[in-house]
Design brief:
Blueprint lengths: L2 E3 L18 E6 L5 E7 L33 E5 L9 E2 L3 E6 L2 E6 L7 E2 L2
Antiparallel strand pairs: 1-2, 2-3, 3-4, 4-5, 6-7, 6-8
C-alpha cells in the first residue's frame, strides 16, 4: 500500500466535487513497476493503511461517490507510476466475470461494458 486519502463525503448524486477530483482513494504498489488506483471510495471506508501488504481478494474499502463522480462507482486502473499525472496506463486481465451479462473466464473489459462478478 502506497497512498491513502479518506477525507471527503460522498457527493449528492448528480453533483461533482471538482476540487478533489480523485475523491477518497488508495494506490497500491505491486512492487514491479505497476500501480493500482482505486478512486471515488466512500468516506471512512478504507480499511488498509499506508505500508500495509494487501492480498488478492482482500477488502480494502467501499465504492462511493466522492470526487469527480456523478454517482456511486469504483474507478479502478493500473499504470506505471504512483503519480496519476505521469503514469502510462496498463492493460488488466480479469477472471470469472460477466461483461454485458456474458460470462467471461479471462479477459479485458472494454469501454462502456457493464461488468459484474455474479
Amino acid at each position: 500500500m502506497r497512498q491513502k486519502i479518506d477525507l471527503f463525503l460522498d457527493n449528492v448524486p448528480g453533483i461533482i466535487n471538482s476540487k478533489q477530483r480523485l475523491g477518497n482513494y488508495i494506490v497500491i504498489d505491486h512492487l514491479n513497476g505497476e500501480y493500482s488506483f482505486m478512486l471515488h471510495l466512500k468516506k471512512n471506508s478504507i480499511i488498509v493503511a499506508v505500508g500495509d501488504m494487501v492480498k488478492r481478494g482482500q477488502k480494502v474499502g467501499l465504492a462511493g461517490n466522492s470526487g469527480n463522480s456523478t454517482g456511486p462507482h469504483l474507478h479502478y486502473h493500473m499504470q506505471t507510476t504512483s503519480s496519476l499525472a505521469t503514469g502510462v496506463g496498463l492493460p488488466m486481465q480479469f477472471q470469472n466475470y460477466y461483461a454485458d451479462d456474458v460470462f467471461t473466464e479471462r479477459g479485458e473489459p472494454i469501454t462502456s461494458q457493464i461488468v459484474r462478478k455474479n
